[in-house]
Amino acid sequence: MKRWFAVIALWSVAWAAPAITLYDQLAPTLDQVRSLQNSNPARALELLTKAEDDFRKGAGDLAPVLRDGVQQSLADARQALARRSNTDLEARIQIIKAILGKALYDNYFSALAAGNSADASRLLPKVLSASGLPSSLQAQAQTLAAANNLDGLRRLFERTYAQGITNALQRAQAQTSAVQAYLEATRAYALYLIVQDSPRARGLTAKGFVDALGKLSSGNLNGFKTDVQGLVAQAQNFLKAVSTPQSQRRSNPPTTAQTPPTAGGVRLQAPRTPPAPREVAPVRAATVQPPARPAARPANPTTPKPAPAPRPVQSAASAPIPDVYQQLLADLRFLIKDNRKLERVADSLSGAGIYSIDDWKRALLEVRGRLLEAQAQAETGQSDAARRTLAQVNARYKTAVQPLVEALRPELAQRTSRVLAQAENAVGLRTSDFTVLSGELLENGLALEGKSLGGFHSAQVWLLQTILGIPRAFLFILMGMLAFFPLYLLTLTFGGRNMYWRFLGLAFFFLLLPAMMEGLSYIGSILSDSRYGRLPFLSFLTNLSIQQNLLAQLFWGLTVLLVIIFATIGLRGIAAQFGLLQNQRTPLRRGRNATIPQSTATTAAGVAGMGAAGASAKPNPGLTSETIVEWDEEF
After folding, report:
1. Which helix (H) or strand (E) segment is 408 a member of?
2. Whole-angstrom Cα distance, residue 36 to residue 18?
3. How many CA atoms lie less than 13 Å away from 32 in the CB half-sphere?
4. What is the dihedral of CA 77, 82, 83, 88, to 10 degrees?
5. Residue 215 — φ and ψ, nearest 5°?
6. Is residue 613 classed as helix, strand or coil in its secondary structure?
7. Of 125, 337, 428, 572, which sits with the fewest C-beta atoms within 10 Å of its C-beta?
């Protein structure tokens, strides 16, 4: 048993550190983004990008469901920043802090269960800060934790959260401004996310909050208030359940809430919230009386006509808001005929903040723009940053682009999602890969028009899926290593005094040099990757790849020119040595008029029988004594 407690203690320490670090990095950065949204949008976007990068680097040990929720909320915050929507940005920041607060909350109770009071003391202020709870709660929590009353401590937190959810929902129900009602309902939803796995909160569901917010976004105020009324009733039941004394629950068996849940064990059913309603300028609801004119004595006493009553001005709450969801359905009906599929696609797109085909096209352009950002990062050797950007591209594609493409061309949507996920996890990305990926996103855009880039693009995507990552890196590293073998054999065989063979050897060297450089670039890609070699200073080797940048391509063109020059010089010299080319030193007439030197008389007499044959034989017209001597010198 002690061994198991030791294991749990070590496990809780491993979980506590990343959660605290992530919150300390993201929370102040997101607060700066919120404060700079109107005054300095460019700086706010830079800070939001920094928050995304920090989260990508430190979220490896976070539960996948929590990690995906934060990533999607960060992407939604980027959209809100682009739309200059203060309400949307505020809502997304609340959701991000709530999801991180869920991780901190679970880690806090896990640390207490493992007896790790040091980590619990570090986590407690962060839990209160992430949830926006009063600091006075810290003293009560520390008292219960010191007494090892974990059930009482959990009930204290759940009671505080239940009261906060109830108050926020009641404020949302009483609001006359749709924007303020949206923020209050989001506040209640954020508090619920932290305690949603409590068995005493069974009446509340994430879907109930999201549906209510969706109705408010679409302008259905009556439906929103009806849903909020039901949520208030369930929140009050939750509050009663956590406020009931233990003595009044004798008949009820002990629930599993007495033991802390596994860290990260949260359903987090629907972390995405619909976009906020448009901010409407407040107008006065009271009627404005026109100023009274000064009395004047009429020339002819007549009965004055009564002044027409002023028209009442509609308040902002009663102003009609267009149902953007119905507009989205109307746009999609031209593309999707199946009603069930139509509603499913509309629900997915509206959850991603897409309410028209134009919004969908803008989202596709945004994904392609982020892909160019990842390409620039890969081109400069920033492989980890490129991989994080690709993860954002993949997440945004799945939520904002894929649902519509999947309804029109399911095989294309699956192929694009698969190749993006493969590129996100691949090592040794090259700029040519991003060209294919950009073409694949363009193929998704053409799906609305029933067009396609053709079979050649499909073949490129198939080839990219086949060799991307380690297979291609292994292939080029192997070719780079094997390129040394023919050069060694060439030097060993023809490395003598014949300068023409040396020129030919140089031609072979420059011919194989790009293959050696390509192999070296993939070695640098693997060694600089944080998942393999973890040697980031070797990332400069990726610039040697011909597929990576313009400079390497121009260098490859120069090597081809040198191959042509050296091969021409060497082969021409060898051809001249073989007598295949006419030369001023060895004219062709000399070979034709040359006769074989006669031997001595004694030798001629000995071969008299072969005189006729010897006389009829003629020497090779291109083979001269000079050629024979030069060739024999090499062998």
Report:
1. helix 402-408
2. 27
3. 15
4. 10
5. -65, -35
6. helix
7. 337
Query: Does residue 300 have a pLDDT over 60?
Result: no
Q: Cite the DSSP H helix spans in 59-177.
A: 64-82, 86-113, 117-131, 137-146, 150-174
Residues 6+ apart with CB under 8 A from 238: 158, 162, 165, 198, 200, 201, 203, 204
| Amino acid, res. 168 | A
Q: List the Cα angle 143/26/205 in 5-degree steps.
A: 70
Predicted local distance difference test score (pLDDT) of residue 116 = 87
Structure confidence by residue, pLDDT tens digits, 196-240 = 888 888 889 888 898 899 888 888 888 898 999 999 999 999 999
Over residues 552-572, the pLDDT tens digits come to 999 999 999 999 999 999 999
Q: CA distances (Å), 292 to each of 289, 295, 304, 414, 454, in order?
A: 9, 9, 14, 72, 76
Residue 331 three-state SS: helix
Please answer whether residues 193 and 102 qualify as being in contact, where contact means their C-beta atoms are separated by less than 8 angstroms. Answer: yes
- Helix ranges (DSSP H) in 196-220: 206-217
Q: 334 φ, ψ to 5°?
A: -75, -15
What tokens were used for 28? Answer: 């102040």
CB 480, CB 541: distance < 8 Å: no
Question: What are the structure tokens assigned to 512, written together?
Answer: 């194989």
The DSSP H or E segment spanning 524 is: helix 499-528
- The owner of tokens 């990508």 is 56
How far apart (Å, rounded) are the C-alpha atoms in residues 424 and 440? 15
Reading the block at residue 116, the tokens are: 């790790």
Q: What distance in Å separates the CA atoms of residue 525 and residue 480, rounded to the nearest whole number?
A: 14
Task: Write out 336-393 in H/E/C secondary structure.
Answer: CCCHHHHHHHHHHHHHCCCCCHHHHHHHHHHHHHHHHHHHHHHHCCCHHHHHHHHHHH
DSSP states along 539-603: GGGGGG-TTT-HHHHHHHHHHHHHHHHHHHHHHHHHHHHTT-S--SSS-HHHHHH--PPP--HHH
Residues across the chain: 635
CA atoms within 13 A on the CB side of 261: 20
